[in-house]
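Open question from group meeting: does this chain pack into something compact, or does most of it stay loose? Before anyone orders reagents, we agreed to write out a predicted structure and look at it together. Recording both the input and the output here so the notebook holds the full record.
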Amino acid sequence: MGMGGQTGGEGCSSGGCVKSQYSWEEIQKHNLRTDKWLVIERKVYNITQWVKRHPGGLRVIGHFAGEDATDAFHAFHPDKQFVKKFLKPLYIGDLAENEPSQDRGKDVQQVEDFRELRRTAEDMGLFNASPVFFTLYLSHILFLEYLAWSTLFYLGTGWIPTLITILLLTTSQAQAGWLQHDFGHLSVFKKSKFNHLLHKFIIGHLKGASANWWNHRHFQHHAKPNIFKKDPDVNMVHIFVLGETQPVEYGKKKMKYLPYNHQHQYFFLIGPPLLIPVYFTIQIMKTMITRKDWVDLAWSLSYYTRFFTTFVPFFGVWGSVALLTIVRFIESHWFVWVTQMNHIPMEIDHEKYRDWLSSQLAATCNIEQSFFNDWFSGHLNFQIEHHLFPTMPRHNYWKIAPLVRSLCSKYNVNYEEKSLYNGFRDVIRSLQKSGELWLDAYLHK
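Structure tokens returned:
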């Protein structure tokens, strides 16, 4: 069969059937909403209809339309043989023999070396989770919840016991947030169904949120971190401008929804305080109801039922509402600073079609390792390793980190690591710099 203008499928004759062959030029044309192809291990798949049924959501797979998605495929799917069964009906042909395995001039040797690193990690058993680690982690979360109730039961509802209870509940909620993240990434159990079940229990029953909402949003972030229109975490709905490109674009177009040159100051008022108690809470409930996700809604309601059953006898209905609001207000600060210190100070831009290693390293940085930093951030201080290998259990990040650093050094890929204080500081500095770029473009261009 020829390449270029083929529509896919098999050409059959008395000699048998031969799959079509395609050039990258042809494949890259199929990146439209109603026409999506992608490449995995030199095989071309038409995913136009499959995106609607993709368990990870239509956007995360759709973001790779017209591209090589081999490394993303391996990153997100721990049971590849099972998933490949779903790929068979979508297979339409192969890359032409004279076509490189990588599109858009990517460094073929760098890509291959990264894949060799992944094989090394698999051989080292770094994708095998420790049952003891995750059992103890869940136990310490449940123990914090028990201590919160016990404090009120034995010490009453005075100011000091109430403050202790708030501290215990906030810590429990933050740590449950990191633990649901592990199960959401399928990094604990070998079988996905067990990961999904525990994910719903932790994010639903222990936190009152939605597993499906989190998956569809967070997987996009991992697929295309810090890429506008593909990573929902950098969609700031005109509240903030990020990076170096967006501020100039807004400035040139005279877009001033807010005084962005002061965003590093009003960030403290509307960023950390409001994300979880206001924006996430409203968005999660709206998503579950509009999508008729009754299973996740039931899990979420079980959290609220348990919470109010536990604390109404101590504080009454409105006192319990106040308690929940305060806990989420404080947790929101914890969550925002930890999640943004790894990404906001890094490159934030439009799609540049980099290879997996380069795209993840451009958008992520690490925070120094210590027992406190590991616990405080849920091991997201190893953000680089987590983004490269999202299904790797977090307790193994430190083992693969030296090999990742060595690979980055070989290809001059920036591997950035900083202290916790500098990570927090750089969030504000990057917002200030982006605001200044906006103001300059707004006034002078």
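Observations to bring back to the group:
The chain has two domains: 10-105, 107-194+220-266+335-445.
The longest helix spans residues 294-340.
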